[in-house]
């Protein structure tokens, strides 16, 4: 099984956006809020399609996606929440 650093290297090579989280120390109080945002990359869509088996052309084929009500490709739902 590949080490995390190898997978991270592959993800970055494919154009993925990887950033380290700042580690929290101590206890977290009830009501603590955390937010995170990132741009969904082509690597995210390609790799998620492979691991999930969701190879619907709405995610991968621009010409197909242009003819849908969305007017273009759409990221997998799990990548947007």
Short description:
Helices cover 37% and strands 0% of the residues. It has 81 residues and is an all-alpha fold.
Description of the molecule:
This protein is 37% helix and 0% strand. The chain has 81 residues and is mainly α. It has a domain of 42 residues. The longest helix has 11 residues. It starts with a helix and ends in a 15-residue tail after the last helix.
Task: Tell me, briefly, the overall form.
Answer: extended
Number of strands: 0
Strand content: under 5%
Largest sheet: none
Structural class by secondary-structure content: mainly alpha
Percent of residues in helices comes to: 25-40%
Cα Rg = 17 Å
Order of helices and strands: HHHH
Unreliable spans:
none
Number of helices: 4
Distance between the termini: 28 Å
Mean pLDDT: 87
């Amino acid at each position: 099984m590949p080490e995390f650093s190898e997978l991270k290297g592959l993800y970055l090579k494919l154009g993925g956006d990887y950033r380290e989280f700042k580690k929290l120390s101590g206890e977290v109080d009830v009501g603590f809020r955390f937010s995170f945002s990132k741009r969904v990359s082509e690597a995210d869509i390609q790799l998620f399609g492979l691991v999930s088996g969701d190879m619907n052309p709405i995610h991968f084929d621009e010409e197909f996606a242009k003819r849908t009500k969305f007017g273009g490709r759409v990221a997998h739902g799990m990548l947007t929440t």
